[in-house]
Amino acid sequence: MAKRDRLVVCASHSPGMERDLQKVYGAVFRDGLARAAARVQDFDPDYIVLFGGDHRRAFRRVVPTFGIGLSAGIIAEGGHPAGTLTVPQDKARALADHLLESRFDIAVCRDIELDHAFAQPLRDLTGALDRYPVIPVPVNCATAPLPHARRVLEFGDAVCRYLDEQGDRVLVIGTGGLSHSPPSLELDAYEIDDDERARVIAEGLPGARKKIKPEWDKGLLDAFAAADHAALVELSDSAHASAGAGANEVRTWLAASAAGGGGPLDALVYEPVEEWITGMAVSVSR
What we know:
Keywords: Oxidoreductase
Enzyme class: oxidoreductase
Low-confidence stretches: none
Protein name: 3-carboxyethylcatechol 2,3-dioxygenase
Structural class: alpha/beta
Organism: Rhodococcus artemisiae
Helix content: 40-55%
Number of domains: 1
Number of strands: 11
InterPro entries: Xdiol_dOase_suB
Strand content: 15-25%
Oligomer: single chain
């Protein structure tokens, strides 16, 4: 069930949204995101636990299944300058200790440089990277082999138990998804420079616009609204085959929902935005 001292917000992210400077596309999604941001403002958390994926930027040769960031920055990207996250190190270290005691062999990450998977939800939901302290929790969603959905839920449950002990007001964010298949993630390559990344994306973009799967997205959102964990596990474990390489990012939603208590997440908005190559959605806890 949902925790009174916790607000869970899960939201899609997309570099295409930030490139759309005139806000031509995704008006329905933007409206839902603004409503979620208003919920966050009213909730006013003590800090944020942010479950995010990586687009093979921070982790290339060594890829942790789960990590806890003890210190972290944000790379310059999409017209935004580089930044630094304010990580509450005592809380982050205690969370890492708790997870290790809970038999999760997490990676402890220092000075990691994270991308829009972490930056975009912070800017969109709180207005700035440094509005609140943030514990970044990377979950491998990009480089096979990926964690099984059941294990991701168990990981979120372990984070939930830690937060239960703290008694803090915590905003829990899951970021990524829904259906999409970015050309750069379709490559089974762990090392790709920015120029090659840009070329692959440009060449694959027309095809990627047609890979959104609204029916799969709706099934997933319905499963979150019903807190149907069996359905969520099945949909998440088959996400790549059914909804594209980027759909693997729904693992962050699984972790966030479990960390919030495992209760229902209600969809505020869903919009398939072809120009952003993504089924865009926002769901929040009750």
